[in-house]
Amino acid sequence: MAATEFPALQNDRILRVIKGEKPDKLPVWIMRQAGRFLPEFREFRKQHSFFEICQTPELACEVTLMPIKRFDLDAAIIFSDILVIPQALGVAVEMRPEVGPVIPKPLTLDTIKDLKEDGAASRLNYVGEAIKLTRKELGGKVPLFGFCGAPWTLFGYMVEGGGSKTMSKAKKWLYKNPDEAKKVLDILTNVIIDYLVMQAEYGAQILQVFESSAEYLNRQLFSTFALPYLGRICDQVKLKLKEKNLDVPMVLFAKGAHFSLADQSNLNYDVLGIDWTVEPKIARTLTKDKVVQGNLDPCALYAPKEEIEKLVGEMAKGFGTSKYIVNLGHGIYPDMEVENVKAFIEAVHNVQV
Ligand code: CP3
């Protein structure tokens, strides 16, 4: 489906900022905005399992629109999960209440050969269908983000069998079996490239790559096992999209990778996400002339309204109001009050640009 068949975009603040233009107000969206902090999502989850929502375009669309109906956000993000890629490779993933994602049979050196790379991206066409439907239902109100997990982060979940406090099982491969680790990272990179291109073809207007487990690496490990793959993803996706006459900006969010911000700014991503641990002024210096996105501590939204306003003002002062997209410095917490989220968004839109 050609992008021109969708309703015209009414709020292009984020896209303008990415082009280097000055918007009328600072744009804002929130990582994990389509998730558990919304009472209507919790109600919805009583009727549907997590992956049923991901795999059913009508349901994924409905959840994607929930925060857009409630708040004056400047972007939507398609409801899905980073772990749909391991699923498409034939690795079973369960979403367990109170635990999060669990991979009952973690990847081993012996099971690399069982990964089903062929056709993996097309087994994710249901995400494309959800994107297409959501673009239509959004009616051009705000742009729609597509996303994926980055290779190292997905590798970590696959080897650990879920989340981990140390990622020591996954890091063991990096030190003991680097060639096998690279083989898996390569497979993931190939699937990610096709998957992101597919999302853009179905109508995603911005693509964000989540390297959520960057914090477990140091600069040297990140340079060997993350950065080259992230670079290849960006370059290949852009190349393939250009061949299809599509131009979709790309965002990299490497959580906890303050040590590599200067290295990241040498990649061709249009925007770099900054996590909440980095001081805005330092992030600016390290990322040179890149557009940046972030980075209020998600816990700052527990503060009273006046404090949220003050913190938003300080953050905007630190980043400056050009080349800047406001977000939290990681995903929003499930127990966040809806009123505080409103206060955050209002505070951002009230900043003088
Ligand atoms: O941002 C959005 O609102 C879009 C949807 C989205 C989800 N997951 C839905 C979700 C996005 C962008 C993600 C990305 C994701 N998933 C990441 C990268 C971002 C980050 O936070 O670093 C990671 C690491 C995952 C893996 C994952 N999925 C974890 C660790 C968990 C459990 C923790 C949690 O936040 O709940 C999930 C589950 C998940 N993904 C939920 C939602 C709405 C809650 C599950 C439920 O409803 O039971």
> Which regions contain 5 or more consecutive residues with pLDDT less than 50?
none
In round numbers, the mean pLDDT is: 97
Largest sheet: 7 strands, parallel
Shape, per Cα inertia axes: globular
How does CATH name the architecture of one domain?
Alpha-Beta Barrel
What does the oligomeric state look like here? single chain
Task: Kindly identify the CATH topology of one domain.
Answer: TIM Barrel
What portion of residues belong to β-strands?
5-15%
Task: Determine the structural class based on helices, strands and strand pairing.
Answer: alpha/beta
- Helix-strand topology string: HHHHEHEEHEHHHEHHEHEHEHEH
Query: How many beta-strand elements?
Result: 9
Number of helices: 15
**Ligands, deduplicated:** coproporphyrinogen III
Account of the protein in words:
The protein has a domain at 38-269: TIM Barrel (Alpha-Beta Barrel). Helix 6 (125-138) packs parallel to helix 9 (178-202), helix 7 (151-160) crosses helix 9 (178-202) and helix 9 (178-202) packs parallel to helix 11 (227-243). The protein has helices at 13-18, 39-47, 50-55, 57-70, 84-88, 125-138, 151-160, 168-176, 178-202, 219-225, 227-243, 261-264, 280-286, 305-319, 338-350; strands at 76-77, 94-96, 100-102, 144-149, 206-211, 250-254, 271-273, 291-296, 324-328. It has 353 residues and is α/β, with parallel strands linked by helices. The protein is globular and about 55 Å long. The strands form 2 sheets. The protein has a 7-stranded parallel β-sheet. It has a two-stranded antiparallel sheet with strand order 2-3. Bound molecules: coproporphyrinogen III (CP3). Coproporphyrinogen III is lined by residues 31-36, 45, 50, 77, 79-83, 95, 100-101, 147, 163, 210, 212, 255, 331. Coproporphyrinogen III binds at residues 31-36, 45, 50, 77, 79-83, 95, 100-101, 147, 163, 210, 212, 255, 331.
